[in-house]
Design goal:
By secondary structure, this protein is mainly α. The chain has one domain. It contains 4 helices and no strands. The N and C termini lie close together (about 10 Å).
Length: about 120
């Protein structure tokens, strides 16, 4: 990965020539893209939070329903299947949440330092 200003200028010049735009225009578009990428990340975090709240409420309703003692055998089997579904979905939700927490710093960087994000995109 080149680290000099001359190498960066050369990469930007080559890319802008391939796209048929100026280097300044290309740079401006990349910096704007950082904001758009940050917004899409925030949307994903919000969606994940909503799913977590729905999952938590579902667990509460299921646990209240499980405490009832007047159930048939088929009700018990169905509840076991629902519990299994909640456990699997909870594990997926946990992994997704951990990944989101780990990438939250990068999302903040898209808003606070979009130029650095643009540089990282160029070097990929």
């Amino acid at each position: 990965m080149p680290k000099t200003d001359a190498a960066l200028a050369q990469v930007l010049t080559d890319l802008s020539q391939k796209l048929g735009v100026t280097v300044e225009h290309l740079w401006a578009v990349l910096v704007k893209q950082a904001f758009i990428s940050g917004i899409s990340d925030l949307f994903i975090y919000t969606l994940l939070t909503v799913i977590a709240v729905i999952w938590y409420r579902g667990i509460n309703k299921l646990s209240k329903r499980t405490k009832k003692s007047d159930k048939s055998y088929s009700d018990i089997q169905m509840e076991e299947g629902i519990w299994a579904l909640f456990i699997v979905s909870g594990a997926i939700l946990l992994v997704s949440s951990i990944c989101s927490i780990c990438s939250f710093g990068a999302t903040l960087g898209k808003f606070l330092n979009p130029e650095f994000w643009a540089l990282k995109q160029i070097w990929k």
